[in-house]
Write a structure and sequence with these properties.
Distance between the termini: 39 Å
CATH topology of the largest domain: BirA Bifunctional Protein, domain 2
Bound molecules: adenosine-5'-triphosphate, magnesium ion
Number of strands: 16
Length: 413
């Protein structure tokens, strides 16, 4: 679990701001959800035989003996909340949430045990237009952050659950003929979740996977038409994609459309954003037949990509650093700082605390990244004046009456 240090938070805040702007441009509304849910919810939704439920969940008994789990993802909790509050009857929703998720994985670059996701979920819309919309929304994010060129869109269709069941038998038959090439993980999955073998990262297994029957060849007319329409929309709007017939996603609940945004610049952890349609999950969690599409985006991987791209253009967090030296100046400075914050909403002013010489205070002002230093010494304090030095531009120092400070900065900041 990693810390986000003060030097790193400006990048986080900038990206979070862009996320909010893009989401509201599409009419998505925020939902805030608990970080802990009943363990049962994740077992029922994500699937018993997935990496997450088999080995990644942080699960504990609370004081009542109930089994709770730190959320490993947000889709299940979001749907749980909407069902619990009756939000899904004859309604359309476009929702988002943002926050930490927890998975007990082997920590490495791009993989943490607490990581942040943006989740987007939509309910009540059956057609591929909404599948396309969330892809467009994500693409706009990449463009706003200057990383569009670093990401490739991969799409696939998983068909309906019946179609997948039929394909599953065909797939198991095929793998039965190549048992010697499968590793222990895959052999275990052969009974429980053979589609996940397609997702194996083991190079030897990948060779067998190359020649495996393709799910796309076994999906029905309706699924096929849905997928076709999605690709037509993407084509019409010039969104490049590659068809990846082996894209199956790690969670059980998907059907029809699945997609991932993948980067070659992040090493093995290249998937920044992943999602798809999961209509069936609503009934699985006790709701009526309905429609759902969403995605989850990994914040750490997105930030790593922004950094690899040359970083974000972040502004310093301070406008004014206030230097004050001497008994009377200290109190005058304290008063002025409060006055300016009152008079200029949004002003970011850091007042020097802890005393020290002009020289040492000025060094701190320089280092702070502030645009201006306001200086109050004994002389200024007695005369009711302040001196102002621009820290970014070569400019002679100004001395003005303290009462004119707000007007001076209102013009310049
Ligand atoms: P992976 O194949 O990388 O394990 P996943 O299929 O488990 O991914 P999802 O559950 O779809 O991932 O999560 C969506 C996104 O959240 C991922 O694409 C990734 O950007 C991010 N993510 C998932 N797990 C982690 C993690 N342990 N640390 C950091 N980011 C993560
Ligand atoms: Mg994973």
């Amino acid at each position: 679990m990693h810390d986000v240090l003060p030097d790193q938070t400006p990048a986080w805040q900038y990206v979070e701001q862009v996320l909010r702007e893009v989401l509201s441009a599409y009419g998505y509304r925020e939902i805030r959800l608990p970080i802990v849910e009943k363990t049962e919810l994740f077992k029922r939704s994500i699937g018993e035989v997935t990496d997450i439920v088999e080995k990644e969940m942080y699960t504990f008994l609370d004081r009542n003996g109930d089994s709770l789990t730190l959320r490993p993802e947000g889709t299940a909790g979001c749907l749980r909340a909407c069902l619990e509050h009756g939000l899904l009857h004859n309604q359309v929703h476009r929702l988002w949430y943002y926050g930490p998720m927890f998975r007990h994985e082997r920590p490495q670059k791009g993989r943490y045990r607490q990581f942040y996701q943006l989740g987007v979920e939509t309910y009540g819309i059956p057609g591929p237009d909404i599948d396309a919309e969330i892809i467009l929304l994500s693409e706009r994010l990449w463009r706003r952050l200057g990383v569009r060129d670093k990401l490739q869109l991969e799409i696939n269709s998983l068909g309906s659950s019946e179609e997948r069941k039929a394909y599953r038998r065909i797939l198991v038959d095929y793998f039965q003929g190549h048992l010697d090439k499968l590793d222990a993980d895959c052999l275990r999955r052969l009974d429980s979740n053979p589609l996940r073998i397609l997702d194996s990262k083991n190079p030897e297994v990948q060779q067998v996977v190359e020649n495996a029957p393709v799910l796309m060849d076994h999906i029905g007319d309706e699924s096929r038409a849905h997928f076709q329409e999605l690709t037509e929309i993407l084509d019409a709007l010039n969104i490049d994609y590659v068809l990846n017939t082996r894209l199956v996603r790690g969670l059980d609940y998907y059907s029809k459309t699945v997609f991932e945004w993948v980067s070659g610049d992040l090493g093995a952890q290249g998937t920044v954003c992943a999602g798809g349609r999961y209509d069936g999950l609503i009934e699985q969690l006790g709701g009526r037949e309905n429609y759902a599409v969403g995605f989850a985006m990994g914040m750490e991987r997105l930030l790593a990509l922004c950094e690899a791209q040359g970083g974000l253009e972040l502004q310093s967090g301070i406008d004014i650093y206030l230097v004050r030296v001497g008994g009377a100046a200290e109190m005058a400075g304290m008063r002025l700082a409060e006055q300016l914050r009152e008079q200029i909403p949004g002003l970011r002013l850091q007042m020097h605390c802890g005393g020290g010489s002009f020289k040492s205070q000025f060094k701190k002002a320089d280092k702070s990244g502030a645009a201006y230093a306001v200086i109050i010494g004994e002389d200024e304090a007695i005369r009711g004046e302040i001196s102002i030095k621009s820290l970014r531009r070569e400019q002679p120092q100004d001395t003005i009456p303290a009462v004119e400070a707000a007007a001076y900065f209102a013009e310049r900041l």
